[in-house]
Every structure is written in structure tokens, then in C-alpha cells.
Amino acid sequence: MGQPTLILASASPRRRELIARLGLEPAAINPADIDETPAAGERPRDYAIRMAREKAQAAATDDGFVLAGDTVVAAGRRILPKAEDVATARKCLELLSGRRHRVLSAIALRAPDGTLRERLCETVVLFKRLSAEEIDAYLASGEWEGKAGGYAIQGLAEGLISRIQGSHSGVVGLPLYETRALLKSAGFQIV
Fold this sequence. Notes:
Elements: E1 5-8, H1 13-20, E2 28-29, H2 44-58, E3 64-75, E4 78-79, H3 86-96, E5 100-110, E6 116-127, H4 132-141, E7 161-165, H5 168-172, H6 176-185
Parallel strand pairs: 1-2, 1-3
Antiparallel strand pairs: 3-4, 3-5, 5-6, 6-7
């Protein structure tokens, strides 16, 4: 009998591109539709792990491994939203300008037998102090749309980041080192 399939519980094209870097092609894409509202007083790391876990469980299947992830941008204890409009993206960029913040990328893997494994990757990112013109230009690019914290590191924002300590792929949306280790620990065959 062959290896069980891998199901990606995300519609994110970035996560599909990243998982391909591990030489993997998901057998199916099954985005989890869950309530992503943070609980009152919930810490960013707890929220990220809970979201990944709930997505993996919501997309569960009996015949495959389900991989889910969640990426949270945190300024202190504050969870920054996914920017759905220019005003939100602007507020996020103004808040992050010239300061360090954390990107918490949680992954959860549900095995066919129902066991759940999870990992959390924390990356510290430092934006340069952004001028109003730089913020306006970035907002005009549209790259911020639907992105946690109002930016995508894999685009124009990378030129505005002076330092990163941790996983670049984790900031993009799927920490590859941790994902590979998680799959191997669950017995999924990966080179």
C-alpha cells in the first residue's frame, strides 16, 4: 500500500509554492472555513497555534495527512489584522514603521489516524522607518491586500525591511524547515 496523500488545508497560492519547494504536490487543496476571530485576551502565539490546529481538524480526512498553517503578525501582544482595505493596511504599516515585530507561523499536521502534531516558528522582522511616500507607494502596489499586518515580504516590502531574524519562508506563510520536520516526525516520506 502506498503512502497516504497530503492535503493542504489552505487556498493560499504562496503555501502551494512553498510546499513545492520541499518537492511535494498536495493531492488536494481543502481550505478550512473556520471563525478566525481572536479570543478576548488571546496571545498571538496561542492564537496562531489554535488557528492552525482548528484548520487541520476542519479539513480532516480519514485517508490522508492534512497540513494547515496560520501566519500572525504581532506588535507586542497585539495581533495585527489581515488588511482588507487601504486604511487598515496604512495603519499596520505606520505601526510597524521603524520597529521590530514578530511573525508567528504555526503549522498543524493531522495524520490519517487522527493524531495531531504542531509547530510554531517565530521570526523577528524590522522595518526601516517608512516615509509617507514609501507607505503610499507600497499601498499603491496592492501587495498588501489580504496580508497579515498589511505587507507581503516576498514582494516590494522586502526592500523596506532592514533585518530579519528567523525563517523567511515562515513570514511568507509556511516555515519550510519546521514543515519538513513535522512531516518526517509523523512518518510521511519526504527526502
